[in-house]
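Annex B. Sample input.
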Amino acid sequence: MTSIRECEATDISKLNLCNLDPLTENYAHTFYCDYIRKWPTMFIVAENQLGQIIGYVMGKVEEDPDYLKILGDKYLPWHGHVTCLTVSPQYRQMGLAKTLTDRLDQACEKENAWFMDLFVRVSNETAINMYKKMG
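Annex B, continued. Sample output.
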């Protein structure tokens, strides 16, 4: 059974199963700690019955500075952002990425975010297709 929960500082050293994927960005330890500190409800992990982290999503809420309002429709108001979403290869195609994204979306809604955005490598067709299916 897989459990979905907020990430804790002690989980950072357990992200290796996911971070070995070449499409997953790897960050400095302090970067992960900053997310836990600033956006604790938006750093969510999937943990298997052995206590291994098999997937995670890191997100935040943000907006462009006021001086960029001159950009008109390109100005980004208060919104959620997916910083990283990854699932360990052996646990893919089980709906974990969607579950993690849905949990992040719920956390963003609690923060009154207008929408959620993300960046995906053009070479990551699997992720692009998944996000298209999600709307």
